[in-house]
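Subject: mismatched residue count in predicted assembly?

I count 482 residues in my input, but I want to confirm that the predicted structure covers every chain. Input:
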Amino acid sequence: MSQKSDLRNRIKFTLLLLVLARLGIFIPVPGIDHDAFYASVEKNTLVNFLNIFSGGGFSTIGIFALGIVPYINSSIVMQLLTKIIPDLEKLQKEEGELGRQKITQITRYLALGWATLQSGAISIWVKPYVFNWNFTFVCESVLALTAGSMIIMWLSELITEKGIGNGASLLIFQNIVSGLPKNFTQSFFDANYSNTSIKFGLFIVIFLLMIIITIFVQEGTRRIKIISARQLGKSSILDPNSYLPLKLNQGGVMPIVFASASMALPAYLTQLTQNTFLLQVLYLFCPNGSLYLVLYSVLILFFSYFYTSIVMNPEDIATNLKKMGASIPNIRPGQATIDYLQVILNRLTFLGATFLFTVALIPFIIEKVAQIQNLRGLGATSLLILVGVAIDTAKQIQTYVISKKYDSMTK
Amino acid sequence: MEQILKFLWYISTIILVFSILIHNPKSEGLGTIGSQNQFFSNTRSTENTLNKVTWLFLALFLLFTTILAIN
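Triage response: the counts match. Full output below for your records.
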Protein backbone atom coordinates (compact mmCIF):
# COMPACT_ATOMS: atom_id res chain seq x y z
CA MET A 1 0.00 0.00 0.00
CA SER A 2 2.77 2.37 0.95
CA GLN A 3 4.66 1.81 -2.28
CA LYS A 4 1.61 2.80 -4.27
CA SER A 5 1.23 6.06 -2.46
CA ASP A 6 4.94 6.67 -2.80
CA LEU A 7 4.68 6.38 -6.56
CA ARG A 8 1.64 8.60 -6.48
CA ASN A 9 3.56 11.21 -4.51
CA ARG A 10 6.40 11.13 -7.00
CA ILE A 11 4.01 11.64 -9.89
CA LYS A 12 2.22 14.44 -8.06
CA PHE A 13 5.54 16.11 -7.31
CA THR A 14 6.56 15.85 -10.96
CA LEU A 15 3.29 17.33 -12.17
CA LEU A 16 3.54 20.16 -9.67
CA LEU A 17 7.01 21.12 -10.84
CA LEU A 18 5.94 20.92 -14.47
CA VAL A 19 3.07 23.30 -13.75
CA LEU A 20 5.46 25.66 -12.02
CA ALA A 21 7.82 25.54 -14.99
CA ARG A 22 4.91 26.34 -17.28
CA LEU A 23 3.73 29.18 -15.09
CA GLY A 24 7.02 31.04 -15.24
CA ILE A 25 6.75 31.32 -19.01
CA PHE A 26 3.90 33.75 -18.52
CA ILE A 27 5.60 36.00 -16.01
CA PRO A 28 7.02 38.69 -18.29
CA VAL A 29 10.43 40.27 -17.96
CA PRO A 30 9.81 43.86 -16.82
CA GLY A 31 10.33 46.83 -19.11
CA ILE A 32 9.52 45.33 -22.51
CA ASP A 33 6.61 46.23 -24.75
CA HIS A 34 5.47 42.66 -24.94
CA ASP A 35 2.55 43.18 -27.30
CA ALA A 36 4.65 44.91 -29.91
CA PHE A 37 7.36 42.31 -29.59
CA TYR A 38 4.93 39.44 -29.87
CA ALA A 39 3.36 40.90 -32.99
CA SER A 40 6.71 41.38 -34.67
CA VAL A 41 8.18 37.95 -34.04
CA GLU A 42 5.13 35.90 -34.87
CA LYS A 43 6.40 35.14 -38.36
CA ASN A 44 10.06 34.83 -37.45
CA THR A 45 11.36 31.33 -38.22
CA LEU A 46 14.12 31.42 -35.67
CA VAL A 47 11.82 32.43 -32.87
CA ASN A 48 9.33 29.77 -33.88
CA PHE A 49 12.09 27.21 -33.82
CA LEU A 50 13.26 28.32 -30.39
CA ASN A 51 9.69 28.25 -29.19
CA ILE A 52 9.64 24.50 -29.72
CA PHE A 53 12.02 24.09 -26.83
CA SER A 54 10.71 26.82 -24.59
CA GLY A 55 7.01 26.21 -25.11
CA GLY A 56 6.21 29.60 -26.56
CA GLY A 57 8.12 31.31 -23.79
CA PHE A 58 10.49 32.83 -26.24
CA SER A 59 8.00 34.96 -28.10
CA THR A 60 6.54 36.27 -24.85
CA ILE A 61 9.97 36.83 -23.25
CA GLY A 62 8.82 35.35 -19.99
CA ILE A 63 11.37 34.81 -17.26
CA PHE A 64 11.67 31.16 -18.28
CA ALA A 65 12.20 32.07 -21.92
CA LEU A 66 15.55 30.33 -22.14
CA GLY A 67 14.12 27.18 -20.66
CA ILE A 68 16.25 24.10 -20.51
CA VAL A 69 18.24 25.02 -23.63
CA PRO A 70 21.38 26.37 -21.90
CA TYR A 71 21.57 23.23 -19.80
CA ILE A 72 21.17 20.96 -22.80
CA ASN A 73 23.76 22.89 -24.76
CA SER A 74 26.26 22.80 -21.96
CA SER A 75 25.63 19.06 -21.56
CA ILE A 76 26.45 18.61 -25.22
CA VAL A 77 29.61 20.63 -24.84
CA MET A 78 30.64 18.72 -21.73
CA GLN A 79 29.97 15.34 -23.34
CA LEU A 80 32.15 16.31 -26.25
CA LEU A 81 34.84 17.69 -23.98
CA THR A 82 35.02 14.50 -21.91
CA LYS A 83 35.98 12.70 -25.09
CA ILE A 84 38.62 15.28 -25.96
CA ILE A 85 40.21 16.26 -22.66
CA PRO A 86 41.91 13.30 -20.94
CA ASP A 87 41.50 14.77 -17.45
CA LEU A 88 37.74 14.95 -17.83
CA GLU A 89 37.58 11.47 -19.29
CA LYS A 90 39.48 10.23 -16.29
CA LEU A 91 36.96 11.95 -14.03
CA GLN A 92 34.09 10.27 -15.79
CA LYS A 93 35.50 6.80 -16.12
CA GLU A 94 37.80 6.20 -13.21
CA GLU A 95 36.63 8.33 -10.34
CA GLY A 96 33.20 6.75 -10.21
CA GLU A 97 30.28 8.54 -8.58
CA LEU A 98 32.37 11.43 -7.28
CA GLY A 99 33.96 12.12 -10.64
CA ARG A 100 30.63 12.13 -12.40
CA GLN A 101 29.24 14.52 -9.83
CA LYS A 102 32.14 16.84 -10.52
CA ILE A 103 31.36 16.73 -14.20
CA THR A 104 27.72 17.48 -13.49
CA GLN A 105 28.82 20.44 -11.41
CA ILE A 106 31.00 21.80 -14.23
CA THR A 107 28.09 21.32 -16.62
CA ARG A 108 25.92 23.47 -14.37
CA TYR A 109 28.48 26.28 -14.24
CA LEU A 110 28.75 26.09 -17.98
CA ALA A 111 24.97 26.33 -18.20
CA LEU A 112 25.13 29.50 -16.11
CA GLY A 113 27.70 30.99 -18.46
CA TRP A 114 25.68 30.00 -21.49
CA ALA A 115 22.48 31.41 -20.03
CA THR A 116 24.21 34.70 -19.25
CA LEU A 117 25.53 35.00 -22.80
CA GLN A 118 22.24 34.08 -24.37
CA SER A 119 20.20 36.41 -22.21
CA GLY A 120 22.68 39.19 -22.93
CA ALA A 121 22.13 38.63 -26.63
CA ILE A 122 18.38 38.65 -26.13
CA SER A 123 18.37 41.86 -24.12
CA ILE A 124 20.27 43.62 -26.91
CA TRP A 125 18.08 42.05 -29.54
CA VAL A 126 14.81 43.28 -28.02
CA LYS A 127 16.07 46.86 -27.89
CA PRO A 128 13.42 48.23 -30.30
CA TYR A 129 10.63 47.03 -28.02
CA VAL A 130 11.93 48.36 -24.76
CA PHE A 131 10.38 51.42 -23.12
CA ASN A 132 13.57 52.65 -21.58
CA TRP A 133 16.61 50.86 -22.94
CA ASN A 134 19.75 51.44 -20.91
CA PHE A 135 22.44 49.59 -19.06
CA THR A 136 20.20 48.95 -16.08
CA PHE A 137 17.65 47.27 -18.30
CA VAL A 138 20.30 44.98 -19.79
CA CYS A 139 21.54 44.04 -16.34
CA GLU A 140 18.07 43.34 -15.06
CA SER A 141 16.89 41.26 -17.96
CA VAL A 142 20.12 39.28 -18.03
CA LEU A 143 19.68 38.60 -14.34
CA ALA A 144 16.01 37.68 -14.70
CA LEU A 145 16.49 35.40 -17.70
CA THR A 146 19.57 33.72 -16.26
CA ALA A 147 17.82 33.12 -12.97
CA GLY A 148 14.84 31.72 -14.88
CA SER A 149 17.03 29.32 -16.77
CA MET A 150 18.75 28.23 -13.56
CA ILE A 151 15.38 27.63 -11.94
CA ILE A 152 14.33 25.43 -14.83
CA MET A 153 17.59 23.52 -14.53
CA TRP A 154 17.02 22.99 -10.84
CA LEU A 155 13.43 21.90 -11.38
CA SER A 156 14.57 19.37 -13.95
CA GLU A 157 17.09 17.99 -11.47
CA LEU A 158 14.44 17.79 -8.79
CA ILE A 159 12.16 15.87 -11.12
CA THR A 160 14.91 13.42 -12.00
CA GLU A 161 15.84 12.95 -8.38
CA LYS A 162 12.60 13.03 -6.47
CA GLY A 163 9.96 12.72 -9.13
CA ILE A 164 9.60 10.26 -11.93
CA GLY A 165 11.26 10.22 -15.34
CA ASN A 166 14.05 12.39 -16.63
CA GLY A 167 13.42 16.00 -15.75
CA ALA A 168 15.09 17.64 -18.70
CA SER A 169 13.35 15.54 -21.30
CA LEU A 170 10.00 15.86 -19.53
CA LEU A 171 10.30 19.63 -19.63
CA ILE A 172 11.02 19.55 -23.36
CA PHE A 173 8.11 17.16 -23.74
CA GLN A 174 5.76 19.53 -22.01
CA ASN A 175 6.93 22.47 -24.07
CA ILE A 176 6.39 20.64 -27.33
CA VAL A 177 2.94 19.48 -26.28
CA SER A 178 1.95 22.98 -25.28
CA GLY A 179 2.90 24.20 -28.75
CA LEU A 180 0.79 21.57 -30.52
CA PRO A 181 -2.62 23.27 -30.58
CA LYS A 182 -1.16 26.42 -32.07
CA ASN A 183 0.72 24.40 -34.62
CA PHE A 184 -2.42 22.54 -35.62
CA THR A 185 -4.49 25.65 -36.07
CA GLN A 186 -1.77 27.27 -38.13
CA SER A 187 -1.47 24.23 -40.34
CA PHE A 188 -5.09 23.47 -41.02
CA PHE A 189 -7.40 26.31 -40.34
CA ASP A 190 -5.70 28.94 -42.36
CA ALA A 191 -8.04 30.52 -44.87
CA ASN A 192 -5.60 29.90 -47.72
CA TYR A 193 -5.94 26.17 -47.69
CA SER A 194 -8.44 24.08 -49.55
CA ASN A 195 -9.48 20.49 -48.82
CA THR A 196 -8.78 20.94 -45.15
CA SER A 197 -10.61 17.81 -44.07
CA ILE A 198 -8.77 15.55 -46.52
CA LYS A 199 -5.45 16.97 -45.49
CA PHE A 200 -6.34 16.60 -41.86
CA GLY A 201 -7.26 12.95 -42.40
CA LEU A 202 -4.02 12.35 -44.25
CA PHE A 203 -2.13 14.05 -41.51
CA ILE A 204 -3.69 11.89 -38.81
CA VAL A 205 -2.84 8.71 -40.70
CA ILE A 206 0.77 9.78 -41.17
CA PHE A 207 1.00 10.93 -37.61
CA LEU A 208 -0.06 7.51 -36.34
CA LEU A 209 2.24 5.77 -38.78
CA MET A 210 5.16 7.81 -37.58
CA ILE A 211 4.37 7.03 -33.98
CA ILE A 212 4.27 3.32 -34.72
CA ILE A 213 7.56 3.40 -36.62
CA THR A 214 9.17 5.43 -33.86
CA ILE A 215 8.07 2.97 -31.21
CA PHE A 216 9.51 0.11 -33.22
CA VAL A 217 12.80 1.89 -33.63
CA GLN A 218 13.01 2.83 -29.98
CA GLU A 219 12.10 -0.62 -28.76
CA GLY A 220 14.03 -2.73 -31.23
CA THR A 221 16.70 -4.92 -29.65
CA ARG A 222 19.23 -7.34 -30.98
CA ARG A 223 19.43 -10.35 -28.73
CA ILE A 224 22.82 -11.93 -28.56
CA LYS A 225 22.62 -15.40 -27.09
CA ILE A 226 24.94 -16.03 -24.21
CA ILE A 227 25.84 -19.20 -22.47
CA SER A 228 27.00 -19.48 -18.90
CA ALA A 229 29.12 -22.08 -17.20
CA ARG A 230 26.22 -23.17 -15.06
CA GLN A 231 24.13 -24.14 -18.02
CA LEU A 232 26.73 -26.25 -19.70
CA GLY A 233 26.10 -29.38 -17.73
CA LYS A 234 22.36 -29.38 -18.05
CA SER A 235 21.79 -29.68 -21.74
CA SER A 236 23.43 -28.99 -24.99
CA ILE A 237 20.61 -26.74 -26.13
CA LEU A 238 21.00 -23.01 -25.56
CA ASP A 239 18.61 -21.50 -23.10
CA PRO A 240 16.57 -19.03 -25.18
CA ASN A 241 16.02 -16.95 -22.09
CA SER A 242 19.59 -15.92 -21.57
CA TYR A 243 20.61 -13.28 -23.98
CA LEU A 244 22.35 -9.96 -24.08
CA PRO A 245 19.95 -7.27 -25.27
CA LEU A 246 21.52 -4.58 -27.46
CA LYS A 247 19.09 -1.85 -28.34
CA LEU A 248 18.82 -0.62 -31.88
CA ASN A 249 18.85 2.89 -30.62
CA GLN A 250 21.01 2.99 -27.53
CA GLY A 251 20.81 6.70 -26.95
CA GLY A 252 17.02 6.79 -26.92
CA VAL A 253 15.78 10.32 -27.50
CA MET A 254 19.04 11.98 -26.67
CA PRO A 255 20.60 11.96 -30.16
CA ILE A 256 17.50 13.68 -31.50
CA VAL A 257 17.31 16.22 -28.71
CA PHE A 258 20.98 17.05 -29.11
CA ALA A 259 20.84 17.13 -32.89
CA SER A 260 17.86 19.45 -32.96
CA ALA A 261 19.30 21.68 -30.26
CA SER A 262 22.46 22.02 -32.33
CA MET A 263 20.36 22.82 -35.38
CA ALA A 264 19.36 26.06 -33.71
CA LEU A 265 22.96 27.24 -33.80
CA PRO A 266 23.16 28.39 -37.45
CA ALA A 267 19.89 30.26 -37.01
CA TYR A 268 21.36 31.99 -33.97
CA LEU A 269 24.48 32.96 -35.80
CA THR A 270 22.50 34.63 -38.58
CA GLN A 271 21.25 37.09 -35.99
CA LEU A 272 24.76 38.03 -34.98
CA THR A 273 26.55 38.55 -38.27
CA GLN A 274 26.05 41.14 -40.98
CA ASN A 275 28.50 39.64 -43.46
CA THR A 276 26.51 38.69 -46.58
CA PHE A 277 28.70 35.75 -47.55
CA LEU A 278 28.53 34.27 -44.07
CA LEU A 279 24.81 34.86 -44.00
CA GLN A 280 24.35 33.01 -47.27
CA VAL A 281 26.32 30.06 -45.94
CA LEU A 282 24.39 30.06 -42.69
CA TYR A 283 21.01 30.28 -44.41
CA LEU A 284 21.79 27.01 -46.14
CA PHE A 285 21.62 25.36 -42.73
CA CYS A 286 18.52 27.16 -41.49
CA PRO A 287 15.16 25.36 -41.39
CA ASN A 288 14.31 26.32 -44.97
CA GLY A 289 17.80 25.95 -46.42
CA SER A 290 18.84 23.21 -48.79
CA LEU A 291 21.54 21.74 -46.57
CA TYR A 292 19.37 21.71 -43.44
CA LEU A 293 18.37 18.08 -43.84
CA VAL A 294 21.90 17.00 -44.65
CA LEU A 295 23.26 18.61 -41.53
CA TYR A 296 20.40 17.21 -39.49
CA SER A 297 21.07 13.66 -40.69
CA VAL A 298 24.79 13.98 -40.07
CA LEU A 299 24.13 15.26 -36.57
CA ILE A 300 21.67 12.48 -35.76
CA LEU A 301 24.20 9.93 -36.96
CA PHE A 302 27.01 11.58 -35.05
CA PHE A 303 25.12 11.85 -31.76
CA SER A 304 23.80 8.29 -32.09
CA TYR A 305 27.32 6.95 -32.37
CA PHE A 306 28.48 9.27 -29.69
CA TYR A 307 25.79 8.17 -27.29
CA THR A 308 26.26 4.51 -28.00
CA SER A 309 29.93 4.90 -27.19
CA ILE A 310 29.02 6.47 -23.85
CA VAL A 311 26.21 4.16 -22.81
CA MET A 312 27.58 0.88 -24.10
CA ASN A 313 31.22 0.06 -23.81
CA PRO A 314 32.06 -3.31 -25.43
CA GLU A 315 35.07 -3.69 -23.16
CA ASP A 316 32.91 -3.37 -20.06
CA ILE A 317 30.36 -5.82 -21.39
CA ALA A 318 33.09 -8.31 -22.23
CA THR A 319 34.60 -7.97 -18.76
CA ASN A 320 31.23 -8.39 -17.10
CA LEU A 321 30.46 -11.46 -19.16
CA LYS A 322 33.76 -12.95 -18.09
CA LYS A 323 33.02 -12.22 -14.44
CA MET A 324 29.66 -13.92 -14.73
CA GLY A 325 31.31 -16.90 -16.29
CA ALA A 326 29.30 -16.40 -19.42
CA SER A 327 30.28 -16.11 -23.01
CA ILE A 328 28.83 -15.73 -26.45
CA PRO A 329 28.73 -19.11 -28.19
CA ASN A 330 31.54 -19.58 -30.70
CA ILE A 331 33.27 -16.36 -29.69
CA ARG A 332 36.33 -16.42 -27.45
CA PRO A 333 36.23 -14.29 -24.32
CA GLY A 334 38.45 -11.21 -24.20
CA GLN A 335 39.53 -9.34 -27.29
CA ALA A 336 37.49 -11.43 -29.72
CA THR A 337 34.31 -10.72 -27.78
CA ILE A 338 35.10 -7.01 -27.64
CA ASP A 339 35.63 -6.88 -31.39
CA TYR A 340 32.51 -8.90 -32.05
CA LEU A 341 30.36 -6.65 -29.87
CA GLN A 342 31.88 -3.53 -31.38
CA VAL A 343 31.02 -4.59 -34.90
CA ILE A 344 27.46 -5.42 -33.90
CA LEU A 345 27.07 -2.14 -32.03
CA ASN A 346 28.38 -0.15 -34.98
CA ARG A 347 25.95 -1.78 -37.36
CA LEU A 348 23.03 -1.42 -34.97
CA THR A 349 23.77 2.24 -34.38
CA PHE A 350 24.01 2.94 -38.08
CA LEU A 351 20.68 1.24 -38.72
CA GLY A 352 19.07 2.98 -35.75
CA ALA A 353 20.29 6.39 -36.82
CA THR A 354 19.12 5.80 -40.38
CA PHE A 355 15.69 4.84 -39.10
CA LEU A 356 15.53 7.90 -36.91
CA PHE A 357 16.43 10.09 -39.81
CA THR A 358 13.88 8.44 -42.10
CA VAL A 359 11.16 9.16 -39.59
CA ALA A 360 12.40 12.71 -39.35
CA LEU A 361 12.23 13.00 -43.13
CA ILE A 362 8.59 11.95 -43.54
CA PRO A 363 7.04 15.31 -42.60
CA PHE A 364 9.21 17.09 -45.13
CA ILE A 365 8.02 14.82 -47.90
CA ILE A 366 4.40 15.14 -46.80
CA GLU A 367 4.74 18.85 -46.77
CA LYS A 368 5.93 18.85 -50.35
CA VAL A 369 3.23 16.45 -51.51
CA ALA A 370 0.22 17.79 -49.63
CA GLN A 371 1.44 21.37 -49.38
CA ILE A 372 0.73 21.64 -45.72
CA GLN A 373 2.74 24.39 -44.16
CA ASN A 374 4.23 24.55 -40.72
CA LEU A 375 4.34 20.83 -40.26
CA ARG A 376 8.08 20.94 -39.95
CA GLY A 377 8.34 22.44 -36.52
CA LEU A 378 6.04 19.77 -35.23
CA GLY A 379 7.05 16.86 -37.36
CA ALA A 380 10.70 16.13 -37.65
CA THR A 381 11.96 17.07 -34.27
CA SER A 382 9.05 17.03 -31.94
CA LEU A 383 7.35 13.76 -32.68
CA LEU A 384 10.45 11.69 -32.11
CA ILE A 385 11.08 13.47 -28.85
CA LEU A 386 7.46 13.06 -27.77
CA VAL A 387 7.34 9.34 -28.40
CA GLY A 388 10.78 8.77 -26.97
CA VAL A 389 10.12 10.65 -23.77
CA ALA A 390 6.75 9.00 -23.30
CA ILE A 391 8.29 5.53 -23.64
CA ASP A 392 11.21 6.43 -21.41
CA THR A 393 8.96 7.75 -18.67
CA ALA A 394 6.57 4.81 -18.82
CA LYS A 395 9.55 2.48 -18.53
CA GLN A 396 10.94 4.35 -15.58
CA ILE A 397 7.62 4.08 -13.79
CA GLN A 398 7.62 0.34 -14.44
CA THR A 399 11.18 0.00 -13.23
CA TYR A 400 10.29 1.96 -10.16
CA VAL A 401 7.32 -0.24 -9.33
CA ILE A 402 9.36 -3.40 -9.82
CA SER A 403 12.30 -2.20 -7.79
CA LYS A 404 9.93 -1.24 -4.97
CA LYS A 405 8.47 -4.72 -5.05
CA TYR A 406 11.92 -6.22 -4.69
CA ASP A 407 12.63 -3.87 -1.84
CA SER A 408 9.54 -4.96 0.06
CA MET A 409 10.40 -8.61 -0.57
CA THR A 410 13.78 -8.33 1.05
CA LYS A 411 12.49 -6.46 4.06
CA MET B 1 9.19 52.13 -2.72
CA GLU B 2 10.15 51.06 -6.21
CA GLN B 3 13.82 51.37 -5.36
CA ILE B 4 13.47 49.15 -2.32
CA LEU B 5 11.58 46.58 -4.34
CA LYS B 6 14.23 46.60 -7.06
CA PHE B 7 16.92 46.18 -4.46
CA LEU B 8 15.12 43.26 -2.85
CA TRP B 9 14.62 41.73 -6.27
CA TYR B 10 18.33 41.94 -7.04
CA ILE B 11 19.26 40.37 -3.72
CA SER B 12 16.78 37.53 -3.97
CA THR B 13 17.73 36.77 -7.56
CA ILE B 14 21.43 36.62 -6.83
CA ILE B 15 20.94 34.45 -3.77
CA LEU B 16 18.63 32.21 -5.75
CA VAL B 17 21.13 31.64 -8.54
CA PHE B 18 23.87 31.11 -6.02
CA SER B 19 21.89 28.61 -3.97
CA ILE B 20 20.93 26.64 -7.07
CA LEU B 21 24.54 26.50 -8.14
CA ILE B 22 25.88 25.14 -4.88
CA HIS B 23 23.48 22.24 -5.06
CA ASN B 24 25.25 19.02 -5.76
CA PRO B 25 22.74 16.91 -7.59
CA LYS B 26 22.90 13.17 -7.45
CA SER B 27 21.22 12.89 -10.77
CA GLU B 28 23.70 13.11 -13.54
CA GLY B 29 21.89 15.52 -15.72
CA LEU B 30 21.29 14.60 -19.29
CA GLY B 31 24.61 12.89 -19.69
CA THR B 32 24.09 9.35 -18.58
CA ILE B 33 20.48 8.68 -19.15
CA GLY B 34 19.20 5.40 -17.87
CA SER B 35 21.65 5.01 -15.05
CA GLN B 36 20.10 2.68 -12.55
CA ASN B 37 21.26 4.44 -9.44
CA GLN B 38 18.81 7.26 -9.29
CA PHE B 39 16.40 5.55 -6.95
CA PHE B 40 19.00 4.95 -4.31
CA SER B 41 19.50 8.54 -3.36
CA ASN B 42 19.80 9.48 0.25
CA THR B 43 19.38 13.14 0.84
CA ARG B 44 21.77 14.66 3.32
CA SER B 45 20.61 17.20 5.82
CA THR B 46 22.59 20.06 4.30
CA GLU B 47 20.92 19.32 1.02
CA ASN B 48 17.56 19.53 2.79
CA THR B 49 18.25 22.95 4.23
CA LEU B 50 19.59 24.11 0.92
CA ASN B 51 16.43 22.91 -0.78
CA LYS B 52 14.29 24.91 1.62
CA VAL B 53 16.37 28.05 1.12
CA THR B 54 16.18 27.64 -2.64
CA TRP B 55 12.42 27.21 -2.57
CA LEU B 56 12.06 30.30 -0.40
CA PHE B 57 14.09 32.49 -2.72
CA LEU B 58 12.43 30.97 -5.75
CA ALA B 59 9.08 32.09 -4.36
CA LEU B 60 10.45 35.54 -3.56
CA PHE B 61 11.95 35.88 -7.02
CA LEU B 62 8.68 34.98 -8.72
CA LEU B 63 6.74 37.31 -6.45
CA PHE B 64 9.02 40.31 -6.91
CA THR B 65 9.25 39.79 -10.66
CA THR B 66 5.50 39.69 -10.94
CA ILE B 67 5.09 42.86 -8.93
CA LEU B 68 7.75 44.65 -10.96
CA ALA B 69 6.16 43.52 -14.20
CA ILE B 70 2.78 44.84 -13.13
CA ASN B 71 4.25 48.23 -12.35
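Residues 2-23+43-70 of chain B form one domain. Marking this ticket as 'not a bug'.
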